[in-house]
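User: Hi! I'm working on a homework problem where we have to compare a predicted structure to a textbook description. Could you give me the structure for the chain below?
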Amino acid sequence: PAAVEAAKGSNIKIGAENIHFKASGAFTGEVSADMLKEAGVEYVIVGHSERRTYFGETDQTVNLRALAALNAGFKTIICVGETLEQRELGYTETLLKFQTKMALTNVTKEQLANVIIAYEPVWAIGTGVTATSDQADEGNGFVRAAIEEAYGKDAAESVTVQYGGSMNAKNAEELLSKVNVDGGLIGGASLKAQDFSVIVAAASK
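Assistant: Happy to help. Predicted structure tokens:
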């Protein structure tokens, strides 16, 4: 609520990093849609790689959380991405398409208007290793292709596909210049106001 209050009258929107798929129940430590609504949140992130890696999120639970968020009217940022091992085995395209389609199971074409997909290669998050701009463009392209296969070309063109994975003030402009990179899901660099403003400026071009 403090963040929502501080952002009033600006174009800054407040989001949560997770949402539970049940409205109520014995789910200690989880946050429900109603709780987030009451706090004034507009955006929700689901399926972040750290949630998948450390907290047992699966493609199925990511889908349930995404549906809960969309049904509650939130703009929903769904994260997908492959590990280094999966990339080296040549499974990047297969995995990204599968994760995208799984996350969007039972999401209607109308609800898709409130979906943002963030491609975040697990090997590039918080590691200082960034995908090259071509790798980011390719990964985002696989995501867009999966949306096209499920919903058609127009829908695929209209969905915002972000790149997340050590995007920073130095590399943001090059990454954001790519045709399939519509924005960034920024972690560490968003905590440094000066660096973040450089990224925002690059994304605004």
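For your comparison, note the following. The two ends are 31 Å apart (CA to CA). The chain has a mean pLDDT of 95. Good luck with the assignment!
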